[in-house]
Amino acid sequence: MKNIIVPVDFSQQSENALQVAASIAKNNSAKIFALHMLELNEAMISSSEGLHPEQTVFFIKLAEKRFKDFLDKPYLDGVKVVPIIKHFKVFKEIGEVAKEHDADLIVMGSHGTDGIKEIFIGSNTEKVVRHSDTPVLVVKYKMKDFNPKNIVFACNLRKESIHALQRAKFIAENFGAKLNLVYINTPGDDFLSTNDIDVKIQNFCNAVGFDMQIEIYNDYSVEKGILNYTDAIQADLIGMPTHGRKGLSHFFMGSIGEDIANHSLVPVITFKI
Prior knowledge:
Layout: E1 3-7, H1 12-28, E2 31-37, H2 42-46, H3 53-70, E3 80-86, H4 91-100, E4 105-109, H5 115-120, H6 124-131, E5 136-139, E6 150-154, H7 162-175, E7 178-185, H8 194-208, E8 214-218, H9 222-232, E9 237-242, H10 247-253, H11 256-263, E10 268-272
Parallel strand pairs: 1-2, 1-4, 2-3, 4-5, 6-7, 6-9, 7-8, 9-10
Antiparallel strand pairs: 5-10
Helix pairs in contact: 4-6, 6-11
């Protein structure tokens, strides 16, 4: 793990993410790219009634000064940090910056969202999770030393999740952590008998190319099952594949990965399928 992206809006949440990224960077001799989005859309910059060039320069200089103050933290001593300022606030652009700098990880702070706000707006972090092909680590609290040793990876036993599993395995090996694979069995149409699950696990292992120990956890919903299983084994990180659905498909079907990232108090890392 050599390059880490941290979106920064100068909030406490982004500082929490920066501190976690610094901890990871120190353990891997990695570089941090601190990314700030100015939120200036093209109309504001180019229209006759928009910003004049000198006003744009003013906002950039102001952001640079805030960056300098924001990055003046003791926990960043010895860590290479590269500030990046972008004019626009386009969430898929964060993924593009990650690709440009060959990033292994995006680290974001979040306070989560609930209720009507979650349905119609969602959090900025949730939008990045939806768009990014790079794994996204979501943290909720200040963590002085981020070094997970017990990781849950929620597996749906489908071939589409194999790549996400491989990336989760890489992350676990990077931290020297135990990777706990779990399948959440729920009532209703998705319920599987013991024999059905055994067959499904064997088929999945055959597709992966080696046998794995996969725990079966029964609960009323996948989300509750993942959170309850995480609590039961006292895991310190949850790994989730996410479809990154968009539009009406996302509105009606949602994404369990995004829901877990929103609601879990334990840090969550998502891998886009």
